[in-house]
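Take a specimen:
=====
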Amino acid sequence: MKITKEIKQLEKSAAQLTVTIAKKDVAENYTVTLGKYVKQVQLPGFRKGHVPASVLERKYGEQIKMEAASDLIDKALNEIFEDENEKDNRPLPYAQPRLAGDKMPEFDTSKDFTFSVTYDVFPKVNVTDVKGVSIKELQCEITDKDLEEELKGIQERNAVVIDRKDEDKAEKDNIATINIVEIGDDGKEIASTKRDGFVFTIGSGENTYGIDDDIIGMKKGDKKEVSKKYKKDDANPDHAGKTVKYSVELKELKARDLPALDDDLAQDVNEKFKTLDDLKADIKRNLENQKNQKIKQEKSNELLSALIEKYPFEIPASMLEAELQGRWQMMARQFGTTPEELDRMVGASGQSKEAMLKEWTGDAEKMLKSRIIVDNLITSRNISVTPEEIEDQYKKMADDNGLTVEEVKKHYADARAKEYLIDDTKEQKLYEELYKEVKVSKGDKLSFEDLMKRQ
């Protein structure tokens, strides 16, 4: 088939392909299509396969032309996109070519057949160098306070909850169960606001009513009225900027009996620990790993943000939509439901899928651009890894996590997991190269808590 083509690049990584097919091929393809009708169609007064072509053309002329035109378009597109020389101009797998104007072009067997399609292509970016890029590396040190916080958390997770005596007064860190209801301006309870059996830890910030200080000092069975003035930026829009009066009754009061910080606790946490010092050493190693991983992540994110700014390009609409829908499906799996049911759940909560996807758009677009830049650099710089480098990765992970090399290898025995490790190792090698070429200076010094809160 004789074809001439012209490809025009459009905005947002889209392309327009215009194809012209020689009239000889047009006529031949029409004859073949008409022949199929002759063989298959049966009309009154004619035996199957013996209906004259002229009769079929009078009855099904437009349909035959439409089918012949569609067949020509499919053949031409397949031939063009299977050509290795056009691999950069192939449509994305989730972006089917669309006829210009969404209308079938004129089909005439005595003329060349010309049609145009538009579609999204893979974004093109060429990161030639990283000179002039400056980034900052966050600073953080693990302190005794961080270690103490982790130990406190272990104590609380291993604590025994006991009832406090009736005469005992509520204190910070006690577990309180209350009945609470709003009091209207007329002094009567507002039944729709009543909540029985609300449980929270005093002073933990888990109390959405913000009345922790008012509970302190109460005894089991005590009942009191509390007036609470909320700030304008309160997380609960029903409370923001208002003063609300409550009737509160303390129904139950419990306390956590924390275990002593000793060797026995360490052994209860994990049999691999013989002493409390063993547990502390493991906690500190884990904190250091978390800190280092977070700083490394923030550092690479800043580098990629700088490269996105230095080498701007656009993400095609279909690629962005596929990413957003993928995130929606992942969220559904996390909730143990279907995407359709998640849509209904979100709608019932007063939100909408459309609003949430719109909110995710900026982050999704940045992630896609980052991934494309990384893949481009890995390819252009011929980054690869050797089996020996993968072995080194196994050893490093084993040392970082207190495991044996054999345990780590078992985790990556699956082919997909092994491929992920190889890709991640390539990416880390790339970053190490780039950090030698860009300017890296010391950034803000943060506490471990503030570092881990960064989004």
